[in-house]
Every structure is written in C-alpha cells, then in structure tokens.
Write a structure and sequence with these properties.
CATH topology: Growth Hormone, Chain: A
Helix content: over 70%
Distance between the termini: 46 Å
Shape: globular
CATH class: Mainly Alpha
CATH architecture: Up-down Bundle
Oligomer: single chain
Amino acid sequence: MFAASAPSPLYVVYQGLWGFSPATLTAVFAVYVLALLAMLVSAGGLSDFVGRKPVLAAAIAVEAASMLLFLLADGVGWLYAARILQGVGTGLATGTISASLIDLERRPGFGALVNSAVPTAGLAAGALGTGLLVQYAPAPTRLVYALLLVAFVLTGLALAVMPEPVRRRPGVLRSLLPELGVPKRARLAFAVVLPSLMATWSLGGLYLSLGRSLVVEVLGVTAPIAGGLVIFLLMGTGSAASMLLRGRDSRTAIVAGGLFLAGGVGLLLLALTLPSPALFFAGTVVSGFGFGTSFLGAFRTATGLAEPGSRAALVATLYTASYLSFSLPSLAAGLAATNLGLHPTATGYGLVVIALALTAVVATVRFARKTRDRTGESG
C-alpha cells in the first residue's frame, strides 16, 4: 500500500509534463483500482491452494516490474501500463496478506482491525514519503520508484528464507472463479453498511486522484509536499482512528464515523469556497477520523454475522463494493472536472458523500433499534 499511493502526489507533475486532462488523471488512478479488484476477487484465495510464498513472490515480481515502468515512463501510456501492473501485484498481495492475518489471529476482531488500519496507514506513508521526495530530493519522477524497486528486490530476497505455512492442495483452477455473495443472515447488515463503505472510499478515491489538483488549483498551495500531506492526513488519521476505537462496538463506530465524515466534508467544502488551506487541512483530519471509524465499524458489522463457510465470499463482496466506490466516482469526477471545473465538481461530490454518510447513520440507528426489539421479543 505504500507503493500504491506513491504516484498520487506526482499526478500534477505528470500533468504539467504531458498536458493531460483531469479525466485522464482519474482514469490512470481508476485502472489501478479495477486491476486490483479483478485480482482480489479472482485470485484472493489462490494462496490457500498453492501456498502463501508463491503468490507473494509473484506479487513482488509484478510490483517490481511496475516500478520499472514508472522509471521508464515518458508519456501517459506508460502510466496506464504501470498502474495496471501495480494493481495486479497489489491485488495478489492483499488477498494473501489478509489470509495470513486471519491465520495468525489470536483475538476475535484483530484481523478486521488490522485489515482496516494497515492499508490506510500504508497509503498515508506512501503519499507523504513521495511528497517529501518531490519537495526536497532530485529527480522527483524517478527517485521514489528507484527506491521502491530496491525495496521490492530486498523483500523478495527476505521471502526466500521465510517458512511456508500452507500445504498445497488441489482446486487451483476452481479457486480462480470469483466468489461473491452475501449470506441471507447478513444481507440486512450489508445493506445498512453499504452507504458507509461508499462514502468513505469515494472520498478516499477523490483524494488519491484529484487531491493534489484541488490543493494547487483551488486553494493555491503550490508546495510539492502539500499533495502528499493531504493524503497522509486523511489516511493516517483514518488508520489511527481504527486503532483508537477498536474497543467500541461496531454500530457506535459507524454512527460516530458517519457524523465525523459528514462534518469533515462540510469543512472541506467551506474551505474550498473561502478558500482556506488551513481549514481544508483541518477538515481532512476530521474526515479521516470518520473514514477510519466508519470502515472499521462497517467491516465488523457485516462480517460478524457471517458463518465461517460464507465469510470469504462476504469479505470479497465488501472489498468489491469498497474498491468500486474507490474508483468509479473519482473517474466520474475527472470527467466532470474537465467540463465543469474542479471546484464545482468537488462541491457536488462532497454533497453526495455527506448524504451517504448521514444515510449510513440513520440506517445504522434504525437497524440497532430493530435488532434490539427482536431481542426483546425473543426474550
């Protein structure tokens, strides 16, 4: 995930070099997410059959190849190719690492906590690290990828000496068929948490695709580090919120997260109107708190109602909804920004996120009351 967000602060740099539109910028981001999603739903369980190490080795090799393409890039076509490869590698790694966390889980809920906190922490660190390199180091469009390429090579070498925790078993080809579904027992809960997933990840997609453009063109902040900083604040606060509120029940997390998310996005819209960079950064922190809290609560609510035999399909469905929300709305925003401008597009986008967040709050409160009433009647 560190590598996944590394290109985001550089999008504006590439845009200045090669002169492409906001629609193209968001398309470069979207192809990464869609490639990641395709691998996650098709090969997410592959390591259960061939072992964790072979899949991780393939993921590392593909990620290293994507870094090489970024290093050689001299046009937008290279960015598309590099991001697609990066999505494939990240999708392979995500499913395998998630499975490993569940293998090692010793306390109920720990896997959900790590799965919600670590990806956002990685996205935060990658964006900030790239921002710092762009601000203070030479060759901004090359250095970060060279460092990541070295890191992937070293990771591959370390993988060679790691033990393999899974025995090979038959069924590899069948495992590649996408397994999506929501068990009947969890359908109502899934419907309740869906607006929360859509609100959080659509906001994240906007930041990783057009966040730097908003900072430069609407707020007038030209410091190269600013683009990485806003992503760091959103994702870093989200990761911290997941850790701090891990002991809270899921419904409280969704309600509190939805209110923080709606309030934070409201501050963002006000900041863009004034314009006020300081208020924008403050709104990003508030939104990030809502992001992390909402996602943790949504993940726990839905997966907690699934039996072990149907949990894999439900988790894949949750990730599918999340990553589609991560990519498709930002792609639509890029198309709108090309024709309407960044500020009007961001305003409309933010209002939709607020509506989704508040819908999640209302739905969760009603779901809690309905569940409590059923419990009372059965008692």
